[in-house]
Design a protein that fits this description.
6 helices, two-stranded antiparallel ribbon
Length: 174
Amino acid sequence: MRPLRRFLLIRRFRGESLHKVDTKGRVSVPAAFRRVLEEGDPEFTGSSYPNFVVVYGGVRGNCLEGYTISSITKVDKLISKLPRFSRDREILERFINTQSTYMQLDENGRIVLSYRLKEKIGIKDEAIFAGMGEKFQIWEPKNYQNEVDALDSAFKNLSEDENPFLKLDQLQDL
């Protein structure tokens, strides 16, 4: 008889979902994303609401990026490996730590996007949540569509050896 093997299921942020934003900035987080946030918060219990971090700084000024507590901890550990007083570390700490905020889902699975966050990315009455594996992004719908169109166009113009899907095969052997 073979021993029972347990596989660790790691949920990831996947898919895209359009949601209404009310006048107070409240927006529902996709249900599937909520499960990932719950699993990624070490302090989450069935009687609490998951915490996470939203980053609004960095090179991607046209969207917000959400990280579970576990994921942002991994990013922080990587940043901490850089020399303490290096310019690279300072830049990354500014983008990841200074220009970010802790959030918590409410009892209805919503978050509140402050006026500042909505203004930063141009959100008015709708937001698109886009799953990105270990993180998710929140976009103004037209800006998101422009980003997707630009990616599609760039991908169609790649040469065979620039195709990122082929690079995954190379990583498989590592």
